[in-house]
Specification:
The protein has 4 domains: 154 residues, Roll (SH3 type barrels); 162 residues, PX Domain; 239 residues, Substrate Binding Domain Of Dnak, Chain:A, Domain 2, CATH 1.20.1270; 33 residues, no CATH class. It is built from 20 helices and 11 strands. The strands form 3 sheets. The chain has a 5-stranded antiparallel sheet, with no helix packed on it. It has a 3-stranded mixed sheet with strand order 7-6-11. α5 runs antiparallel to α18 and α14 runs antiparallel to α15. It starts with 32 loop residues before the first helix and ends in a 19-residue tail after the last helix.
């Protein structure tokens, strides 16, 4: 298509300290016909854009004036634009991919800018087009200085041109500007270091190479021979990880169990009050140690340490930096108020136990140095000394991928393409189904609470009947209010002197009947208590556990993104033949890692759902067993010889008779699970406050947020 020529601003020369700028492809003459034809051979701007087809038409995006809303310091290597709040901008391409726009500053520098960092200041209309004989108004903003009449006369002769099959006129950033790097530097493929590993590899320090830690693939047959492999690759360093045929992670240490228990409140002069949890690791002995018919079974080895929530933050931060290629469970959020209430402390304890339990079950994460120190360092002084070292450790980046060893030719590109599609759809469906299950289970808990109220209603009604005492929350059971007086029931003939439900004095049959009916009323109250307690405690535990498996797609989204991007690079490398064999081999390494992570999810999903369902069934069995026990005990009172013994003494009032005037039919609301990190919730987590507080201290703010500072933010 043809466009009007426009005036260009002078571009300053690049000096020694000047910021790198886009090449000529991004010059202001980009919209001219020559620039259009010159860049037809280039690829798309983003990995996510579709391949060109006959149905695609050229983009009709136009230059728009805008103003920067916030300061943004761009990365030169990613061709990003550095702006200050209030700077005037020209938006050359609004949709450059992944939430970025191509913008030009007033200095003439052109680069990428996030879409949320600017706002349009006016809408510019282009030169008039001949559309059905009508002329639309035009401005001279994008046209060279000329008379209005001349501009309109030239515009009337403009006819859209057919330039053949269209492809995106912008050059490929990966090929021309970024050295093959992705446009979106916030994707997991980039932030994990997988992209850098695929493109450039990783050079181990000389001492590491000498010790045999340089990355290489080993024969598939050797993957099942642990002794042979370890003798060739070196023994058990914590930063070396092995993938076996499958692909599946090779575990260096056996699984163990971790309990988080016994929370207690502490006070510090520096950080104020906080909660300390006991973290106990249970290491089961091996089969050989247990098998001894002459001795009793050996109890697990226990190691207990004291940890606070901020220590879990250190653990998660260090793991995220040192193991960028695995899917770590999200750490529970902090919260502002109520963090010392019994309900919240118990919910936090359960969240932390499930978090560290997942870490301990992961075949790679459980032998990380920070994990072993976190679980095994019993000296508080030593642990406090180690924490700054763990936080200061550099991000592993491509080094993580360089230290993963796997069988050669362990991945087929077609299988890798198919498996990620199935895995993505499966985790998305599991998340939606589990969310629905969580909602239904919440309704089940509410129904149990209603059953508790119903059992109490039945108990109060039965007690009111045998005592002839009306209760305030229900209609009078056959008693006319006009017939009532202040005389006791015994004088009205409703009860006899023994408290029996009879007008006759000394009636033992009615006395025994009254007593067993009263015991039945008490049993129904016990059943109501069981329903209430079951909904508040046992079922709450299951409800909490369900949220842990409710977001598999979000948890593995980074793995999915990395896998998809690597498959794309792998296909490109295979097309280029032997010249890119090394890149293809590095792509295989990343795919081995991502597919091993999918295999880990497969195993953990089975374990977690099996545990949840078994615990639920065990809880239901125990609950109904207790209900059955209470009902059987009430039924036995109607049988001899117990029934015969009840007529020998007067009836004693039930403790629930005092509740007839104010029955307990309005229990407090059920406690709900603390929201998951990925749940949509109106509660603003403390982590947001931390970010805003730091931003306020540094004089910076984030889009759409107000900076604020909170005292003692790390009090937990």
């Amino acid at each position: 298509m043809a466009t009007l020529p426009r005036a260009t601003k002078p571009v300053p020369s690049v000096g020694a300290d000047a910021r790198p700028r886009s090449d000529a492809a991004f010059d202001v003459g980009l919209h001219s016909s020559n620039a259009w034809k010159e860049h037809l051979e280039h690829g798309s701007l983003s990995d996510d854009e579709p391949e060109p087809s006959d149905n695609l038409q050229p983009s009709d995006e136009r230059v728009k004036a805008a103003r920067a809303l916030y300061d943004f310091e761009g990365k030169a290597e990613f061709r990003e634009l550095t702006v200050e709040a209030g700077d005037e901008l020209d938006i050359l391409k609004e949709e450059a991919g992944d939430g970025w726009s191509l913008a030009r500053a007033s200095s003439g520098e052109i680069g990428l800018l996030p879409q949320t960092y600017y706002t349009y200041t006016s809408t510019f209309l282009y030169a008039p087009w001949a559309v059905h004989g009508r002329k639309e108004p035009s401005t001279s903003t994008i046209a060279p200085a000329s008379s209005k009449e001349q501009l309109e006369s030239e515009a009337l002769s403009i006819v859209p041109q057919n330039t053949g099959e269209w492809t995106n006129p912008f050059p490929s950033f990966r090929q021309s500007l970024l050295g093959g790097k992705s446009l979106n530097r916030f994707s997991s493929f980039v932030t994990s270091g997988a992209e850098e590993w695929v493109l450039k590899g990783y050079d181990d320090p000389p001492e590491s190479v000498a010790s045999g830690s340089s990355h290489k693939r080993f024969a598939t047959d050797d993957s099942v021979d642990e002794d042979n492999r370890l003798s060739r690759l070196g023994l058990g360093e914590a930063d070396k990880h092995y993938v076996d045929a499958g692909p599946t992670w090779q575990s260096k240490v056996p699984k163990f169990r971790v309990l988080v228990h016994s929370p207690s409140k502490r006070t510090s002069g520096l950080s104020g009050a906080y909660t300390v949890y006991s973290v106990t690791s249970l290491f089961s002995p091996t089969t050989d140690e247990c098998y001894n018919p002459d001795n009793p079974p050996i109890s697990p080895t226990r190691i207990t340490v004291q940890r606070r929530f901020s220590h879990f933050v250190v653990l998660h931060t260090a793991l995220s930096r040192r193991l960028p290629g695995i899917a770590l469970p999200p750490l529970p959020e902090k919260q502002y108020a109520g963090r010392f209430s019994a309900d919240f402390v118990e919910a936090r304890r359960g969240d932390l136990e499930r978090y560290i339990g997942r870490i301990a079950r992961h075949p790679v994460a459980r032998y990380a140095e920070v994990v072993t120190s976190f679980l095994g360092c019993e000296s508080d002084t030593e642990w406090k000394r180690l924490m700054p070292d763990f936080l200061a450790m550099p991000a592993a980046g491509p080094a993580f991928f360089a230290h993963v060893f796997h069988p050669a030719f362990n991945v087929d590109v077609d299988d890798a393409t198919e498996v990620i599609d199935r895995f993505s759809r499966h985790t998305d469906a599991v998340g939606k189904g589990t969310q629905n299950l969580r909602n239904v289970f919440g309704g089940i808990r509410e129904a149990r609470l209603e059953m508790s109220k119903a059992e109490r209603l039945l108990s109060y009604s039965l007690l009111s009947l045998i005592t002839s005492t009306p209760w305030s929350s229900a209609p009078l059971a056959g008693i006319d209010e006009d017939d009532e007086d202040d005389a006791p029931p015994q004088r009205n003939g409703l009860l006899n002197e023994d408290g029996a439900w009879c007008w006759r004095e000394g009636c033992q049959d009615c006395l025994k009947l009254t007593k067993v009916m009263q015991k039945t009323s008490d049993a129904l109250q016990n059943v109501a208590d069981l329903y209430d307690d079951h909904a508040r405690r046992t079922q709450l535990t299951t409800h909490e556990a369900l949220k842990n498996v409710a977001h598999p797609y979000q948890s593995y989204e980074g793995i999915i993104e990395t896998h998809q991007s690597t498959v794309s690079r792998y296909k490109d490398a295979l097309k280029m033949g032997k010249s890119n064999d090394e890149m293809a081999a590095r792509c295989e390494t990343v795919l081995n890692i991502t597919m091993a992570e999918m295999d880990t999810y497969h195993d953990q999903k089975g374990e977690e759902f099996s545990t949840i369902i078994k615990d639920h069934l065990d809880g239901e069995i125990a609950f109904y067993g207790q209900v059955l026990h209470r009902l059987k005990a009430a039924r036995c009172t109607f049988e001899a010889p117990y029934f015969d013994e009840l007529g020998k003494s007067p009836r004693q009032s039930s403790r629930h008779e005092r509740e007839l005037g104010a029955p307990k039919l309005n229990p407090p609301p059920l406690p709900q699970p603390c929201p998951h990190v990925y749940d949509s919730t109106p509660m603003r987590p403390v982590s947001v406050a931390i970010q805003e507080g730091i931003g306020a201290l540094l004089g910076k703010s984030q889009p759409g947020r107000r900076g604020s500072v909170f005292g003692r933010i790390w009090a937990e």
